[in-house]
Design a protein that fits this description.
Elements lengths: L1 H27 L6 H29 L4 H26 L3 H15 L3 H27 L6 H22 L8 H29 L22 H10 L7 H39 L1
Helix pairs in contact: 1-2, 1-4, 1-5, 1-6, 2-5, 3-5, 3-7, 7-8, 7-9
GO molecular function, one term: ferrous iron transmembrane transporter activity
Subcellular location: Membrane
Pfam families: FTR1
């Protein structure tokens, strides 16, 4: 349940961030009032696209009924990859997101061409919605039917929390600020992706696609059992296992090594762009 609340909370906040920036700019620019209709049309289109993806996933599951377990394992890994990609993207573009969006809107207003607003809002909603759909698929597919109503409430709670968080963030940093919010949730998202990777690895081990190498490498059940209420939440949000196999540990460690390498690579790419940007500015001066 905690996974559902968290992922929908974070995904909804990101979608609200983009839509909020677009709406705020359109509202304070007299010549851009006509763009609001295109903004809301884009939001509706984005929701429809995310809904179509959900239908497509369940249709694919029906077509691959004989390989349902493998399909679910693959979707878990896809969800983890999307989460990591989202964190890397926000680290690269978060600082300039508002400026870039407003710059594009200025060009659209000058040209009286609001198709860009529709496409941008649709893509923002569809992107976050599709990530939520892919993530929730694995969770819902493995859940007993009697838990589905509670999961629906968890999803609703995540959206309500997102609206409340967005409202607090709009207070201008008096209660929360965007930088702190994204830094804290980035860490939580990376741990959540680790939990998904561990779940996927365990599914492959259960299918004999991966060897366990050694079962029960250690046992910390006496300290925190992943079958307890608290331990279950920790396991769902971080990938913790009280009695992991050697393969599970290797996958967990490998995941963090890969994340570290990707972040180093992104930092190196960003650093390499600074000298060229500075040179370009010097040339203009």
């Amino acid at each position: 349940m905690g996974q559902i609340v968290f992922i929908l909370w974070r995904e909804s906040v990101e979608a609200l961030l983009v839509v909020g920036i677009l709406y705020a700019w359109l509202s304070r620019t007299p010549e851009a009032q006509g763009g609001k209709r295109w903004l809301w049309a884009g939001v509706v289109l984005g929701l429809l696209l995310a809904g179509l993806l959900a239908l497509g996933i369940y249709a694919a599951e029906g077509l691959l009924a004989e390989h349902q377990d493998l399909f679910q394992a693959v979707m878990v890994f896809v969800a983890a990859a999307l989460i990591v990609q989202m964190v890397l993207w926000m680290r690269s573009h978060g600082r300039t997101l508002k400026r870039d969006l407003e710059s594009g809107l200025s060009r659209q207003a000058q040209q009286r061409n609001w198709w860009g607003v529709l496409v941008l809002s649709a893509l923002a909603i569809a992107r976050e919605g599709s990530e939520a759909v892919v993530f929730l698929y694995g969770t819902l597919a493995a859940a007993p039917a009697q838990e589905l109503p509670m999961m629906g409430l968890a999803a609703l709670a995540g959206i309500v929390l997102a609206l409340a968080t967005f409202g607090l963030l709009q207070l201008g940093g008096k209660v929360l600020n965007w930088r702190s919010f994204f830094r804290v949730t980035e860490i939580m998202l990376l741990f959540l992706a680790a939990a998904l990777v561990v779940t996927g690895a365990e599914k492959l081990q259960a299918m004999d696609w991966l060897p366990a190498l050694r079962d029960g490498l250690w046992d910390t059940s006496a300290v925190l059992s992943d079958m307890s209420t608290v331990g279950g939440v920790v396991a769902a949000l971080t990938g913790y296992r009280a009695q992991p196999s050697l393969m599970t540990v290797l996958v967990f460690v490998g995941y963090w090594v890969l994340v570290w390498a990707l972040m180093r690579w992104r930092s190196a790419v960003a650093a390499s762009r600074l000298p060229s940007a500075a040179h370009g500015m010097a040339g203009k001066l």
